[in-house]
Structure prediction request, 356 residues.
Amino acid sequence: MKKVGIVLINYQAYAQEFLIPCCDALRAQKYDGEVKIYLVDNASSEESKKYLQESYPEAQVLAREDGNYCAASNLGFQKAIEDGCEYLVALNMDTEVQAGWLSELIQALEKNPSAGLAQSLIYLAPKNEAEKNNPLINTAGNIINFLFFGFTSFYGRTLAESKINLDSCPEIAYASGCSFAIRQEVFLATGPYNEDLYMYHDDLELSLKARLAGWKIILAPRSQVFHKYQFVRNTRNLYYMERSRQIMYRAFYSRRARIFLALPYFLMEIGLSAFSIFGGWFGAKMKLYPEIWSGRFQKIVKKERRELLRVTKFSGKKVAASFSGRVQFAEIDNFVLKYLANPALNWYWQIIKHFI
Prediction:
């Protein structure tokens, strides 16, 4: 088997909560090839660096200071490439990988030469005995909405309810950054991560570039992970999530396309602004609007658009045709969204996607 580099990223005291069970599960993996572990200490301090080195002495610790998640990912992947790793694996630290996780993930790419990335089947960490015996899915591949929201698929369902065939490797829209493998040559051709995104949509952007370059993104359902998922809805996280979405939306679509999409875009902005009031992040949402129209933001968008065009060998229109017309937030399922907004958005997208 080929040499693999696994990159985990720490942020401040994150490792003290999650690293030990994560590295214990990694140590138990059986893989017929060389494996190197890289711990990127993002927003590093002497204390955090020492803790990583003492807790996981087999790993190489790479220190950074500014907390930029995309830059941290680039550092880890670049070091793995320098060390001759032919497959690069991104893994969240708040996970516990299951037996065969790594070998199944790499075998999925070995058996599917047209695939550039493969994502593990990611379960929610069980909260009780029932969930231990029949775990709930966190994501079996992520979904891109045409307004560039990203969603998990089959969230909260069991394997039986999802009807996923463990012996197949279905194509997915994009691979979750929680656990995926990418070929070195694909990352070199389509990477690196866009560090202007800072955090969020980094996995979507990388997968999108790979698809535009003609590679498939697949699910490796026998590569399984338990994810201690806990999205912290603070204003900082929500600000960066929205900021990254706005960058990708403007970079992917031409001006002509955005004219066709103006109606659903502005209606969604009104809805999000209203929702932000009740969610307590209205200030963060309003802070974003003057930034969107700044010269610096426009330069970031133009740079990302050039990058998308650089890698494009496959029809962007065909990629867009696979986007979802629905907004599928796992934690939001209210009457307005379910019965009014989503049917209207989906109807509009099914018509307009043929003209952009």
User: Anything to note?
Assistant: The radius of gyration is 20 Å. The domain at 1-93 is CATH 3.90.550.10 (Spore Coat Polysaccharide Biosynthesis Protein SpsA; Chain A). The longest helix spans residues 235-252. The mean pLDDT is 94.
